[in-house]
Amino acid sequence: MASVPADKEEGVPLDRWPCPFLRVRDGAGPETVQGSVVAEEPLEVVLNGRPVAVLMRTPGHEKELAVGYCLGEGLVRSFDDVVLVQHCGRLALRPDAPDDPLDASRNRVSITLREGAPVGNSAGEVTPLVRSGCGRVHLEEVDLGLAPLGREDLRVPRAVVEGLSAEMPPRQRAYRESGGIHAAALFTREGELVVLLEDVGRHNAVDKVTGYCLLRGIPLGDKILVSTGRASYDMVVKAVRLGIPIVASRSSPTSLAVQLAERLNCTLLGYLRRGQFRIYTHPWRIIL
């Protein structure tokens, strides 16, 4: 019997999150668009009653993700050892749905192994990003208690933002030679490149450029962080923790990235292209 994809409930897509944004295009004024971003939420994986990880994921296929993670990471030796996989609750489908999108009852999968089954050495050593019981997981817990950025800091002309994307490709040497690699860069408010570094992991590329500045005493509070990778919640967390007020991506942000950026006074830009970009949060930092 053919299986039905488990990525919808009551016919409503789970992978998209409605989100208005300001679209800025060359030769035109800012335009408000009722669009959407990819959904991102935490999923706590519990193995034999013990939390082993919190995975940031797009809703859908929660059981599959948890099982694949545990076996792929070696926490479970064989699928034959698995006797029960339980997803606690139903999925909320929209930000205005009655269910809280960060409710642990729908963001927790519990896996039980047969008695005596071995558990990988790393199980239980991973500190969960979000510690949740059987109740709710609040957004305040996801942002790790970070203080919002100040509102008297960086402001950047629109023309500077429009030109950032063109500055990166000529310096992405590894990408030109082999492809399959991400880049991150830090720019001044005038659009001057401070540093660009590449890595197969988008998070690693961001860590490299911020570490480059930290080791050299270069301040980050007046810089613009640009990444070729998707802007997920952890990109916003990294930036805010280091005081970087503007985060831009050549790709899309996720729903949780937008929510956190709004809460933490971080200006989040997406789809950064030559002559155009989208503003998802705090547009006051961009002089339009």
Task: Provide a brief overview of the structure.
This protein has 288 residues and is of the alpha/beta class. It has helices at residues 62-72, 139-142, 158-167, 173-178, 202-215, 233-241, 255-263, and strands spanning 8-9, 12-13, 16-25, 31-38, 41-47, 50-57, 82-87, 108-113, 156-157, 182-187, 193-199, 224-227, 246-249, 267-273, 276-281, 286-287.
Largest sheet: 8 strands, mixed
Shape: elongated
Please work out how many helical segments DSSP would assign.
7
Order of helices and strands: EEEEEEHEEHEHHEEHEHEHEEE
Low-confidence stretches: 1-12, 126-138
Set out the fold topology.
Elements: E1 8-9, E2 12-13, E3 16-25, E4 31-38, E5 41-47, E6 50-57, H1 62-72, E7 82-87, E8 108-113, H2 139-142, E9 156-157, H3 158-167, H4 173-178, E10 182-187, E11 193-199, H5 202-215, E12 224-227, H6 233-241, E13 246-249, H7 255-263, E14 267-273, E15 276-281, E16 286-287
Parallel strand pairs: 5-8, 9-16, 12-13, 13-14
Antiparallel strand pairs: 1-2, 3-4, 3-15, 5-6, 7-8, 10-11, 10-12, 14-15
Can you describe what's shown?
- With 288 residues, this protein is α/β, with parallel strands linked by helices.
- The protein has two domains: 41-142, Roll (Ubiquitin-like (UB roll)); 156-287, Cytidine Deaminase, domain 2.
- Helix content is 22%, strand content 30%.
- It contains seven helices and 16 strands.
- An eight-stranded mixed beta sheet has the order 4-3-15-14-13-12-10-11, with helices on both faces.
- The longest helix has 14 residues, at 202-215.
- Residues 1-12 and 126-138 have low confidence and may be disordered.
